[in-house]
Each structure stands twice: as C-alpha cells, then as structure tokens.
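Why does residue order matter? Because the sequence determines the fold. Keep that principle in mind as you read this record.
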Amino acid sequence: MPTSDDSLIRRFRAGQIVSAATVLRALDELQRAAPDAGQTASRYIPSTLPAAGETVAPASDECESFWQSALETAGAPVLSSKTGVAAFRAGNAGLAVLPTLPLRSGGSADGIDAAPLQELLASEYTVGVALLRLGRYAIGVYQGKRLLVSKTDTRYVKGRHHAGGTSQRRFQRVREQQIHRLYVKASGILTEQWRPFQGQLDYAALGGEAATIAGFVKECRLLQTLSPITLPRRLDVREPNRAALQQAGAMLYECQVYPLSWAD
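Structure:
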C-alpha cells in the first residue's frame, strides 16, 4: 500500500476543486495509510461568514497557531479562508479541505475525524444561485442539491467595438445600455425567484463572468442585502443555461484541497 505521502501529495494539486465524494474517499485512504493511530490528527477551523440572520463574526487568528508551518506552506488561500478549513494529518502528510459552504464546527481531535465535514457535505441548506455572463443568465433556488425554482433567459449585448472616434463612443453607449437592461431584467427575475425564500435562504451563490457578476451585484438591491451570506467562491460556469443551473447543486458541495506536509 502506498504511504500517505504518495497517496495524497502526488494525487492533488494545490487549490484543486474536487467533489465531496472525492474528498471523503481521500480521507478514508489517509486513515488506512496512516503509519499508526498515534500519528493522525484532525483540526477544524470554523467559517468567519455569518449564518442567515447573524452578524459577521470577527476573523479568528486560529489559523496562525494551528499547524502553522504546514498551513503557511499551503499558502494564503488556506490561511485566509472565509468558509473555514478542515485539516487532517497522518504521519508526515495531510490534507487541508476548504469547503464551498461554510464550515460551522471548530476544534481538534485525535485520528482522522471526518464526521463534521461529512455532516456539512450532507447538509440541505437553502441557497439562491445566480449565474451570469453578458447576454445570458440563469437563476434558481436550491434545497440541498434539489433545484426548487429556476429561470433562464438571454438578452442581446453587442460585442466589443475596436474602431475609434465618434463611432466607438456611440457603440459603447449602446452596449452599456444593453448591459444595464440585462442587469435590470436579471435583477427582477432574481427578486421574483428568491423573495418567497428570503426568510429561509441560508446562502447566496454567484457564478459566471467575474466582471459581469461584479456589475450585477452593484445594480441588484436584493443581492446587496444578502452580501453577508454570499459565498466567497464563485461557481465556475462558462455558459449560464439550464444545464449549468442543474449542475450548480453539486458544485455547492465541492471543496478546494491543499496537500500538507510536515518535516521529519
């Protein structure tokens, strides 16, 4: 059987996004590959994001004191994770797991204790999802991985114009008006789809083109009110359509992983 170093460090890239099932299988292998039970440990650092209806908690400095050398080697994304960190050690190797959904449990344990992470990945939070790029949007609400309501649509937006002078300025004004109309339409649909669940929404999730999403947030009042519970990780969606919206449920339960190592 390969050592825990071989099975984890070589398998995952730093920052790789993997499914919930892949994470749980890796932890099971880490437990089985451990040299002995005395060299395994787990530590959970909870999210700094608030739950629905809560105020934002102050950032914890727990990361800096928890397995400091290994987490610092993993890099800033681990040390500054707003959704929390689940970290596991077996001998000289380990894995830091950053879930998309906020981790509420904190503490440490001997052995590979995957229970708090398993509980999170089996949760059925109510999440509003908005996917946008110029010319298209897809909006829905999930209960766990089940899509409750959804709406997708297109709205024409001109491409970029590379000529100069008056023609370019006129073209740019038309394009900006089209983008604004896209935002207005998508904002109306989002409000229509999400408002019946507003008292029940645990989180909001956004995906699509980064610049388009940033502009949309500035124009959508409901998203602005939900900013404290908006997930920091953007869903990686190229084409916001019905198929992408169906896949978003599983994407909410994906995790970002970082191999860890300790010196002898």
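The chain has two domains: 4-123+253-261, 126-251.
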